[in-house]
Specification:
Elements lengths: L7 H7 L3 E8 L13 E7 L4 H8 L14
Antiparallel strand pairs: 1-2
Length: 71
Amino acid sequence: VPTRPITPGTLLGEHGINIANFALGRPQHSQPGEDAQAFAVVQVEGQISPSLLELLRKQIAIMSVRLVELG
């Protein structure tokens, strides 16, 4: 029986990381109906470990993960 992919929110929650902000977008040059990739920016409360970053990168629906630390 195939298993469902784990959503990023579930994976973060299982590691005790709260999502503070979540935004979706697509490149400005994309046109409605065009097969364009979307992107998400997820602001979290807490520290993301290298092992959690790797788990996120292994998810089938995620093409790329970048950690940006502000402040």
